[in-house]
Amino acid sequence: MLDDFTSSTPRRGFIGRVTAAAMGLGVASLVPEGAEAAVSHVKDAALEAWFAKMNGKHRAVFDSPEPNSGFGVIWPKIYILTTEGTYPGEKATPMVILRHESLPLALQDNLWSKYKLGEQFKINMGDIPATKNPYATITGLPIPGLGVVELMKSGVLIGACDVAMTVYSSGAAQKMGLKAEDVKKEWIAGMIPGVQLVPSGVFAVARAQELGAQYIFAG
């Protein structure tokens, strides 16, 4: 639920944090001033260059708002194997957007341990909260190359939502009596190398579709 990112924060508090984060990120500037504004002027050229890496003939964006037992970082590999196997010589480029409660999948083990992310996001290893990222590399299945780290080795593009980063790091900071801005900086610095921070998950999912990606809900 939206109000579960800490046990003590009410729903209004969560929505208020989202609103504040959106304003801080300048989301309002994304809305054209008039209906005649047809030309986009990108603010972050590096971000647009990252989107441009999705250049295969077959493109899909996997929308992952929930951890869903890691399937959001399993299905993209299956998409590559079956699409390129069906159409030999034709490249498939998936993109995964980790937003809302899938955010911790983008973070390294030290943050999982320090901030008890398994407990915060209700992600278990066995019967206890995970103390490291169980979906960075996924083994034990008869398909190689699964998990955030391995997918990126295959050319999969993985983005993490900055709004979720703001909201959930703030919740962790509040719980531990730390400064929200310091915790957010630490979380961004602690993303798995290669993961791209995107202004918001919903923006990234929409942008990928504008660039020809088919939408796939990854749960």
What's this entry about, in short?
The protein contains 9 helices and 7 strands, in the order H-H-E-H-E-H-H-E-E-H-E-H-H-E-H-E. With 219 residues, it is of the alpha/beta class. It starts with 10 loop residues before the first helix and ends with a strand.
Order of neighbouring strands in the sheet with most strands: 6-5-2-1-7
The assigned CATH architecture is 3-Layer(aba) Sandwich
Count of distinct strands: 7
Q: Decide which structural class fits the backbone.
A: alpha/beta
Cα-atom Rg, whole angstroms?
Answer: 18 Å
Question: Into how many domains do the coordinates divide?
Answer: 1
Explain what the structure shows.
- This protein has 219 residues and is of the alpha/beta class.
- The protein has one domain (45-217): DsrEFH-like (Hypothetical Protein Ychn, Chain: A), CATH 3.40.1260.10.
- The chain is built from 9 helices and 7 strands; from the N terminus they run H-H-E-H-E-H-H-E-E-H-E-H-H-E-H-E.
- Strands 6-5-2-1-7 form a 5-stranded parallel beta sheet, with helices on both faces.
- Residues 1-12 and 25-38 have low confidence and may be disordered.
Give the topology:
Layout: H1 11-24, H2 45-51, E1 58-64, H3 75-86, E2 92-98, H4 109-114, H5 117-120, E3 124-125, E4 128-129, H6 148-153, E5 157-161, H7 162-176, H8 180-189, E6 196-198, H9 201-210, E7 214-217
Parallel strand pairs: 1-2, 1-7, 2-5, 5-6
Antiparallel strand pairs: 3-4
